[in-house]
Amino acid sequence: MDFRRQLSTELPVLRRFSRALTGDPALADDLVQDCLERAMLKSHLYDPSRPLRAWLFTMLRNLHISGIRRNGRSNVVKTVDDLMDGEDAVAPEQEHRLAAGSVQEALERLSQQHREVIVLVGLEEMSYRDVSEILGVPVGTVMSRLSRAREQMRQMLEERGHTGLRRVK
């Protein structure tokens, strides 16, 4: 499979990771586009014996961090009051949407380090070793960040009244 085709197969996961990093669909799309442009320009540096996804995630993360350094914080988290407006009149069949919204809000409230690790391990189902390579930290650091992130998410969701959460390893 040629390099362009390999890149296109990674688009959905790149978008998901980018959205988790930025919290904004438009910024996420811009970040993915920048990442793909950089990947094409630097394709000669890619080692095909290594996972393409890890290489792209590292590039995407580095571009995001560079953007934060250059422009200041990239996403603004709404206040809980703003998020709660109008939620009292929700029908019971829409409660699952509220729970998903609460999870998204909690994810956005995590620090960058905790959000990255929970998305890569929990959503992208990457191994601790792969995540440690992407983030450039030891496996033990990935494990401790993940533990802290899960605990913070649990606390935030319990504050919003979502107490029936099950623990996932």
TrEMBL record:
Residues 8-60 form the PhyR sigma2 domain. Coiled coil: none annotated. InterPro entries: PhyR_sigma2, RNA_pol_sigma-70-like, RNA_pol_sigma-70_dom, RNA_pol_sigma70_r4_t2, RNA_pol_sigma_r2, RNA_pol_sigma_r3/r4-like, WH-like_DNA-bd_sf. This is RNA polymerase subunit sigma-70. PANTHER family: RNA POLYMERASE ECF-TYPE SIGMA FACTO (PTHR43133), RNA POLYMERASE SIGMA FACTOR RFAY-RELATED (PTHR43133:SF25). The lineage of its organism: Bacteria, Pseudomonadati, Pseudomonadota, Alphaproteobacteria, Hyphomicrobiales. It comes from Aestuariivirga litoralis. GO terms for biological process: DNA-templated transcription initiation. Belongs to the sigma-70 factor family. ECF subfamily.
